Amino acid sequence: MNTIARRPEPTIRVRLTLLYGGLFLVGGLVLLTLTYFLVKNSMEHRSADLAAVRVAGSGPADTQVISPKQSGALLAQSEPSPGVLYTARQTQGLVVQAKQVSARQTLNSLLTQGGIALAVVGTAALGLGWIFAGRALRPIHKITETARRVAHSRNLTERIAYAGPRDDVKELADTFDTMLERLARAFEGQRRFVDNASHELRTPLAINRTLIDVAVRRPDASADVKRLGESLLVVGDRHERLIEGLLTLAGSENTVVDTAPLDLADVAGHVLDQAKTELEGRGLTVHRALGRAPTEGDPVLVERLVQNLVENAIRYNVDGGEVRLATRRHEGGAELVVANTGPVIPAYEVETLFEPFRRLRSDRVRSDRGTGLGLSIVRAIATAHRGAVTADPRAGGGLAVTVRLPSLR
């Protein structure tokens, strides 16, 4: 399936650095603009004051006040020849023009040098913003590292124990520590419940099985008693499988997995050897392609995962059908694929098979094929190992289940 590549988003540190630098540059630009207009206005007033002079003539009527533009125009109309003395009016025009040129040069220099200084100081502001943002986010990084370690190691006893000032970061760290403490208590309570339920539920069933077996084997047992005993043994066996599946599902969904290095190829080969008798009894052909697939996980739970998939591939198959089992390396981990022949499965029903007590429509009333917890347990175990499970219906009937587990860290 094609996916649209998402543009990587900038980190909080980058965004804060750009924010600090952007605010500084905007403020510097506003200050430079105000300074430019203030200096320009001041120079225009000074030039006007210097241009407002009396020009001496032949009499009082020749005395007039001229502006800088007028003096420049007068100077342009009559350029003196070399060696000719300037008149008083021409001299005044030259002075005003020199003042105007000096003002323009001063303003241009202000813009150029101010812009260069603003660029240099803005670059320095970006660097300082990067440093300050890193120092401000350091407690957040510590919280993130702790959360990552807890997620990978499942060690719920670790705490952040932030010792900084009582601010928002301190409140966040304390809240995270409180959450870890409650999670640890919840997981411990879950573990105790599963252990107690396992003992309390399995013991009576084992006693009932023993009593029924003794009663059936008695020499004076009638045929009706034997048939009843055999029926009760079948029902008891189903109850044992149901309880075992429920306990495994409860334990795998919320357990803290103790991981160890293992190879899916070894686990799959062991499970197939154990199921050899059942495979031969159904006349199923097994195709093995067990390549190396190193990963890590709880060996007991991973074996249960593979066992459930193989059992499903056998039970929901046709006599004389096929079972395919393959293990291989995958990008970032190991992959297990279990496929079988069997009834045609609609694509829209595949996802529902992973729900507890869900079976195919044709098998919902049959109790001899399982409890409906097999794929639910598989997904729970894979999730507990930070893996994923997918299933695809085969065109000719049957199902192909793919399990991907992460590689060794």
Your description of this structure?
The chain folds into 3 domains: 12-151, no CATH class; 154-256; 260-406, Histidine kinase-like ATPase, C-terminal domain (Heat Shock Protein 90, 2-Layer Sandwich), CATH 3.30.565.10. It has helices at 12-51, 68-77, 88-153, 168-216, 223-254, 264-274, 276-282, 299-315, 374-384, and strands at 260-263, 285-290, 294-297, 322-330, 333-340, 388-393, 399-406. It is elongated and about 145 Å long. Mean pLDDT is 77; it is low at 53-85 and 362-367. The longest helix has 66 residues, at 88-153. The strands form 2 sheets. Strands 2-4-5-7-6 form a 5-stranded mixed beta sheet, with helices on one face. It has 409 residues and is of the alpha+beta class.
What strand line-up does the widest sheet have?
2-4-5-7-6
The CATH architecture classification of the largest domain is 2-Layer Sandwich
Mean pLDDT: 77
Q: Over all CA atoms, what is the radius of gyration?
A: 43 Å
Total tally of structural domains? 3
> Helix and strand succession?
HHHHHEHHEEHEEHEE
Q: If helices are DSSP runs of H or I spanning 4 or more residues, what is the number of helices?
A: 9
Observed structural traits:
409 residues; alpha+beta; Heat Shock Protein 90; five-stranded mixed β-sheet; two-stranded antiparallel ribbon; 7 strands; 11% strand
